[in-house]
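Known limitations

Structure tokens in this collection are predictions and should be treated as such. Users comparing against experimental data should check residue numbering before alignment. To illustrate the layout, the record for Helix-turn-helix domain-containing protein is reproduced below. The input appears on top and the generated tokens appear beneath it.
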Amino acid sequence: MLESMTGNAALNELGEFLKKRRSELSPRTVGLPETGGHRRVSGLRREEVAQLAAISTDYYTRLEQGRIQASAPVLDTLARVLHLDDDQRAYLFQLAGKTTTRARRRGRQKVQPQLQRLLDDLTATPALVQGRRGDILAWNSLAAALVTDFSRLPEKHRNYPWIQFTDPAMRTLYADWETSARISVAQLRMEAAKYPDDPRLIALVGELSMRDKHFAQWWGEHQVASRTVGTKTLNHPVAGELVLDWDTLTANTDPDQHLTVWTAKPGSPTHDRLRILASWAADQNVPASDTVT
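Generated tokens:
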């Protein structure tokens, strides 16, 4: 009976429960790359669970050893990382002596109608709308032609930091990929301060930390940045070199939605090449986002 357990016994049981659950998962199950070779432990390693949960390996190890108590947000994240069902999640919280009430989840973001109309009217300017965590909520056909065909990506991977770090084409598209990627990490770190308990943001950070050593290193540097303005140079496979100014506009109706546009000075080589790219996108039927996004 859980009710009769002492504090230490409950913590020990919680540790054994966590250990058993991670032993049942493979790297592939949680979206990690298979590294090949013999694994000394069945299932996930402690450090893999810790990184997916965005906590230290030492902290997670002490949890499994029954030496510390976990906060409700950490338990909630571990329940997601370990793919616990509702009963298992309730059991985990009961062992920890925490309430089993789920944290309030923010609703799925949808692009504001006025931003969608603006996107539809921008035929010669690449533009997209980003939401929380850099999620890509909507885009026009020229943005898809410029960066990637977002419609081909699973919805959960329509996220700018995810694309920057997992799509090899991005490292050749950006003339200075490292600077751009560092800015994405700094913007994500700023958002983490605003929504520290966002489970999807925690999952994104954990997964990217496991996949890319640069992300893990730069995340640990705690640099921050807001979405403002800047200039970037792209080496596009169709249009060639593009030197683009980017600007970000925030929706008054939802401050977590940002319209990013890339522009070039009229008469410049980049301005002319954008028109060529727009014509190519039309010929290729590069899709914009649906108006019902």
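For this record: The CA atoms of residues 87 and 206 lie 24 Å apart. The mean pLDDT is 87. Please report discrepancies through the issue tracker.
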